[in-house]
Recover the amino acids of this structure.
């Protein structure tokens, strides 16, 4: 494998890793929403009381608006864009 293609493989792997990090954050948020859903059902059928579901939803919303989440989105976007650009350059040559 040429050095250029090794470089391309690394760029593409970096894009995948960035997306996996973002996926972890999104999966964590989805689990929190699932918990809020169960808490809401508990309220609806009278098994629980309180505002736990609202707190869970607010916590999730805050995480999705956090600098860490925004940074993960930006990094994933940047790494994927770099991989696409590398592949476009290869196709030109």
């Amino acid at each position: 494998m040429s050095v250029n293609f090794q470089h391309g493989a690394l760029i593409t792997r970096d894009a995948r890793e960035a997306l996996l990090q973002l996926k972890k954050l999104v999966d964590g948020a989805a689990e929190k929403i699932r918990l809020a859903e169960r808490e809401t059902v508990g309220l609806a059928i009278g098994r629980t009381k309180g505002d736990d579901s609202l707190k869970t939803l607010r916590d999730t919303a805050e995480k999705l608006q956090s600098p860490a989440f925004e940074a993960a989105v930006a990094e994933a976007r940047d790494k994927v864009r770099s991989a696409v650009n590398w592949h476009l350059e290869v196709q030109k040559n």
User: Anything to note?
Assistant: The CA atoms of residues 17 and 64 lie 19 Å apart. The radius of gyration is 20 Å. Residues 3-92 form one domain.
